[in-house]
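Bumping my old thread because nobody answered last time. Still need a sequence for this structure:
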């Protein structure tokens, strides 16, 4: 028996026989073209390969739309954007023409350089887009190199199996027979990858980032994967097999019960209604949000419209996207956050300089205020879309009252301009700020007088307050949202909001963690916005407890002097309420 660890990507337990998907490493030969005719022919081959790949992507998108629905299939819109990236195609063509190199060699060099640049970025979302770039251009190379095998052989996948591969992309789902995948393990990838998103949409347990699994997995051997904890067990003994079989049955039973109650309101036994919302990163997630009984979006990230593109999205493109979100979620609300681009998140649309600390650099509202045209375009699109649903607007990374007032001034000017041109705009749009910078938390009382709501971003707030890079594995034990300093700051923000008559939500990781969610509710949070996969379990816990009990336990917890004592105390007090949550615990930590 051998146990491996990876990144939890889609919860659930899968037990079955291994099917290793062979994916040959591509060996590209460098060929120098000795005549102008060969150079021109190679350019034409490259153009043809791009066109054939586009046709394949469109065909697979149509195929997946019939199985997964429109929203999940829209993931391929991003793949098509990548394929049409002018920078990559132009650089490749230039190498073919100027250096007289074969198309496959030229393309691989350009793509390798692009991947190096992506991997250097601090933003986890962008690093995971590397897989998309690799997946798309594997298809192009498949047309340039005859003996290069990129896909999955559908002939071998007729029986239900747990699939093990070095990497998989959303494209590969098209090659699996319906119902043939019990679970999946990959060596690469992250929880926010497109493959992981589709796996969650299909309720397929998945573990990604499991290094070395393809070297030790053997076709036909038994495997257990725990997608909630990122655990992979090869050749389990009888006791382990029995243990996980019991857990699998419990998990399936609990999931069925949770889904049966998904439309019940998140209200405590003593009648306290809690707003539960989901965080949205990609349009494809809306279907899953609705299926999990969630009717609000508490954090609609808009960066996907800007990333992997050489030019900003048009006002019309943004208007269509935001309108679609609002229509689908109506009558629930959608909080659209203006773009949180940063020094490591911008492609060619804005000239930026390299920053030693991009998380602390020129990003989010700072770019909005410096690049007003981009900001105004987005605000026009958001305000035009407001008539289609219940819209709220939120500014990220506000650090001072002056900064907020500048943003509000531009917002109000844009609104006035639209109304002056008789463009319809909703009469009531709440405007709020993310509290994720310690300076904003310290002046929360003043900020609260300017806006309609706060949303606390506990991920960055914890990182900045404790001076801990949350992406640094070595510092992981220090990134602790139960640190008394963090909790005192959160409590002070909630108090400031309520004393000024505005509501406050939480959209960071804490909102989707059972113990932390109870802690936040006990401190007075009015709304919790989380990863979709957390919604049903958090709703269940809320419905199983009284608000008075939550408040009294949390009041006592906040008197303790260490995060360890606080966590142990909460676990002891709420043990019965969150007794099943260990099966979800790690997936709750997926980026939210």
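Sorry it took so long. Here it is:
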């Amino acid at each position: 028996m051998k146990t491996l660890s990876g990144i939890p990507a889609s919860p659930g337990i899968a037990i079955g026989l291994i099917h290793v998907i062979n994916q040959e490493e591509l060996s590209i030969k460098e060929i120098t073209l000795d005549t102008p005719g060969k150079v021109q022919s190679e350019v034409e081959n490259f153009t043809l390969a791009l066109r054939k790949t586009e046709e394949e992507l469109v065909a697979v998108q149509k195929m997946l739309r019939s199985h997964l629905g429109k929203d999940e299939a829209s993931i391929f819109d991003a793949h098509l954007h990548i394929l049409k990236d002018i920078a990559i195609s132009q650089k490749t063509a230039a190498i073919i023409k100027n250096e007289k190199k074969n198309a496959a060699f030229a393309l691989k060099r350009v793509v390798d350089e692009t991947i190096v640049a992506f991997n250097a970025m601090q933003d986890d979302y962008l690093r995971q887009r590397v897989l998309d770039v690799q997946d798309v251009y594997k298809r192009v190379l498949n047309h340039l190199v005859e003996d290069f095998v990129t896909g999955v052989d559908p002939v071998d996948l007729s029986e239900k199996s747990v699939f093990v591969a070095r990497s998989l992309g959303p494209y590969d789902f098209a090659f699996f027979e319906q119902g043939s995948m019990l679970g999946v393990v990959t060596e690469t990838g992250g929880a926010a990858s497109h493959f992981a998103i589709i796996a969650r949409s299909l309720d397929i347990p998945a573990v990604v980032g499991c290094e070395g699994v393809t070297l030790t997995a053997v076709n036909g051997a038994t495997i257990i994967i725990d997608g909630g904890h990122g655990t992979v067990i090869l050749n389990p003994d009888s006791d382990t097999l029995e243990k996980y079989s019991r857990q699998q049955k419990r998990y399936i039973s609990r999931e069925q019960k949770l889904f049966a109650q998904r439309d019940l309101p998140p209200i405590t036994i003593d009648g306290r209604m809690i707003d539960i919302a989901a965080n949205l990163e990609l349009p494809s997630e809306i279907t899953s949000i609705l299926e999990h009984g969630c009717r609000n979006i508490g954090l609609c990230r808009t960066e996907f419209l800007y990333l992997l593109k050489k030019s900003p999205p048009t006002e019309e493109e943004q208007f269509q996207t935001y309108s679609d979100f609002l229509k689908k979620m109506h009558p629930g609300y959608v909080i659209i956050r203006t773009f949180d681009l940063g020094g490591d998140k911008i492609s060619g649309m804005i000239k930026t300089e390299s920053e030693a600390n991009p998380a602390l650099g020129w990003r989010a509202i700072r770019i909005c205020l410096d690049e007003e045209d981009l900001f105004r375009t987005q605000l026009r699109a958001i305000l035009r879309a407001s008539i289609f649903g219940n819209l709220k607007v939120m500014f990220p990374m506000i650090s001072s009252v002056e900064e907020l007032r500048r943003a509000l001034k531009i917002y109000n000017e844009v609104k006035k301009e639209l109304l002056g041109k008789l463009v319809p705009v909703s009469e009531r749009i709440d405007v709020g700020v993310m509290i994720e910078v310690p300076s904003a938390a310290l002046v929360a009382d003043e900020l609260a007088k300017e806006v309609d709501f706060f949303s606390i971003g506990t991920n960055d707030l914890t990182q900045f307050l404790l001076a801990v890079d949350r992406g640094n594995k070595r510092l992981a034990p220090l990134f602790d949202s139960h640190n008394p300093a963090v909790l005192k700051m959160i409590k002070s923000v909630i108090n400031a909001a309520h004393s000024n008559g505005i509501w406050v939500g939480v959209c960071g990781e804490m909102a989707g963690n059972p113990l932390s969610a109870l802690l936040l509710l006990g401190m007075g949070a009015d709304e919790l916005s989380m990863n979709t996969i957390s919604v049903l379990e958090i709703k269940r816990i809320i419905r199983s407890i009284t608000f008075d009990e939550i408040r009294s336990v949390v009041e006592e917890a906040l008197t303790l002097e260490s995060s360890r004592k606080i966590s142990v105390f909460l676990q002891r007090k709420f043990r019965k309420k969150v007794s099943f949550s260990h099966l979800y615990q790690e997936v709750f930590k997926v980026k939210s």
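Residues 384 and 423 are 7 Å apart (CA to CA). Let me know if any region looks off to you.
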